[in-house]
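Chapter summary example: a protein plus iron/sulfur cluster.
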Amino acid sequence: MLTTAEKLNILGEAAKYDASCSSSGSGRQGKPGGFGNAHMAGICHTWTDDGRCLSLLKVLYSNVCIFDCAYCVNRTSNDVLRATFEPDELAQIVVEFYKRNYIEGLFLSSGIIKNPDYTMEQLTKTVSLLRNKYNYYGYIHVKVVPGTSKKLIEAMGLLADRISVNIELPSKNSLALLAPQKKPKNITLPMQQIKLAKLDNAEARKKYKKAPLFAPAGQSTQIIIGATPDSDLAILRLSEGLYNGYNMKRVYYSAYLPVGKHPALPSPETRVPLLREHRLYQADWLLRFYGFQAAELLNDEKPSLDLELDPKCNWALNNLDLFPVEVNTADYQLLLRIPGIGVQSAQRIIAARKEKRLNLEDLKKLGIVMKRAQYFVTAAGKFGGRLRPKSHNLHTALAQPTDYVQLSLFDLPTANSFLNAGNF
Ligand code: SF4
């Protein structure tokens, strides 16, 4: 029989592969005489819409799973130690961690224990205990198990801040090959139900301000990158469809880590370049905030993002006939498409040029990244770049090093000093 501390170690470790709760680590452990510990099993960080960073307990309810998804460490055929919490056991951990300032929220997912609804009932009991027995009002993000019934999704939406379903693989073919028990409909239907429930809730709250909120932080999903041959174009098209069709708040991209031996998976020695994941995040940003469409960034002839150039520079080099752009007359949407000019700097340009005709010096003062923008703008008719936009050397001038290293989510040992000290 496993202790609560042992379960937490197993289920915190098993949850780390989910990137849809964005996370980072810290190697700082608690010391005698001090307080706080950034090193606890399963603790990660996420960011709210207003930019606040929250520490979350990121944990599975259970790593028992009846499915055998080839890319997943929790697949039924994998020989790993299994553990399952009781609802009140996990609720108490959250409460105790919160009271000790270890965490400000919970990210809860699970393997499929007997069937989707049974699993979701256990998650609902846990979250209901937190909200109704322990009066915990902190942030909760719950992963909905694919195939969960509508009634349970609606119940969870009234308890959690964010609920989401992971799509995991970018195409039906990949899903059929590596996760044949997961039916695409069982993923997209809950997404649709969450979207509709949120819309209904918004209507209800217009009429009755005290109507309870339904998943106020919206829904997100995760796509695994590089486990299958799906191209960046296919991935971005899928993301675009998710944002437009399901009001998705956020799509997370997670470079595949070799945990499976299926012949269709990359060999264990293959490491998916983290720079690919980074470029997808940049392209995703362009879809969400810069008015780009996937088809403008990539096409069937060139379906992969350039690892040397960020996607906006790449788009600009493919559309040189639009440049240079005069910053004093370009509309907001065109300003947003200039490399080196972001949402804030485009807004600053619009505001500043009401006062005066801007010159190149003014652009620097407005915080424009001239290192990139210089090749694509004129200000009061003056071009400040070393190379004219049509030069072939622009690619070289804008290329970035490809030895990109992202801070690892997983390098930390899962220390568990609090629980091992006999607190549970
Ligand atoms: S259903 Fe989820 S937990 Fe189970 S094997 Fe598939 S990905 Fe892993």
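Key point: DSSP finds 16 helices and ten strands in the chain.
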